[in-house]
Amino acid sequence: MGLRFAGQQPAAVIESSGRRYLLVSDIHLGYELELASKGVRAPPQAPKVTRHLLELGEECGAEVLVLMGDVKHRIAGVSWREEVGVRSMLDDLSREFDEIVVLPGNHDAGISELIGDLGRVVGSRGIRIGDYWVMHGHTWPLPESVTVSAYVIGHTHPTAVIRTSEGTLRMKVNLLIESARSRLVKAIASRPGYSETFEGLRFRGRIKLLILGHFSSMAPGVDVSELSSSSRTSPLLRSGAFNVLDADVLSTSGELLGRLGELEFKEEA
Question: Under DSSP, is residue 47 helix (H, G, I), strand (E, B) or coil?
Fold first, then answer.
């Protein structure tokens, strides 16, 4: 794909125009406040996330950190924990990365004011990095995105449930799906005001969709067997532009586990 995975956590690296971009999604800083409201105590996650991102950045030699949405957890407004945690994290990260780019997600209300001059906030409908279109994934991409080789999104929190004789393990995974480009164009063209954009044009070949697992160690995942019916699925999947049952299920390090429509996580002997 011209893209590689970074370490053992859900993260990817893209090299373009002499720069190396580290991509992560769904950090959900402040999720510990939701846990606290349910009687579960957890320490602030910002220090641990910051340490992991610094280690990943150094390991892969990235100059640019791309936060692909849901940097914070609270959907409406900004909690005090998020304000302290996000600004502290970005302050530390900005000393190590040349640039921090933030693609807002559905949990990122107020993120521009929160971040200030510590990062560059761009549109939620994505940006092009090399031959990839990168976005959080809760919105439709811009029409010009259909010319790239692949989309990279988060938002979905894909998780595989493995049951063994010793218990149940929930494993974060990445998903990789391929589709006909014409199928994607048809789905985007059905959006209000978009049909004229593609009028008279023909699109051939294939295009891929890479769904990165969530970087947060606390936020819950969605079982990959339930993604086709989940309300948290990206519009790119809900539209049928990409068939989730055709997805290759990958470990966070990129190892192929199997095809989703054929994969069974059986109890180990």
Answer: helix
Supply the mean pLDDT for the chain: 89
Please tell me the distance from the alpha carbon of residue 130 to that of residue 214, in angstroms, as a whole number: 23
State whether residue 258 is helix, strand or coil: strand
Sign of CA dihedral 10, 208, 185, 21: positive
Q: Using the 8-state DSSP alphabet, how is residue 185 labeled?
A: H
* Three-class DSSP category at 14: strand
CA distance 38 to 104: 27
Provide the token pair at 195: 């049909």
Closest CA to 28 of 241, 257, 214: 214
Instruction: Encode pLDDT of 161-208 as tens digits.
Output: 877 677 777 889 999 999 999 999 999 999 888 888 887 788 899 999
Bridge partners for 29 per DSSP: 72
Using CA atoms of 229, 234, 235, 237 in order, give the dihedral in degrees to the nearest 10.
-60
Question: In angstroms, rounded to a whole number, what is the distance separating the alpha carbons of residues 95 and 93?
Answer: 5
Number of H helices, E strands in the chain: 6, 15
Helix, strand, coil percentages in the chain from 3-state DSSP, rounded to 5? 30, 25, 45
Q: What is the Cα–Cα distance from 198 to 183, expressed in whole angstroms?
A: 13
Q: Report how far residue 255's alpha carbon sits from residue 82's, in angstroms, rounded to the nearest whole number.
A: 34
Residue with tokens 């959006």: 191
Q: Residue 41: helix, strand or coil by DSSP?
A: coil
User: Taking the alpha carbons of 81, 87, 89, 92 in that order, is the dihedral positive or negative?
Assistant: negative
Overall pTM > 0.85: yes
Handedness of CA 67, 10, 16, 56 (dihedral sign): positive
The burial class, CB within 10 Å (0-12 / 13-18 / 19+), for 217 is middle
Here the tokens at position 92 are 């530390």
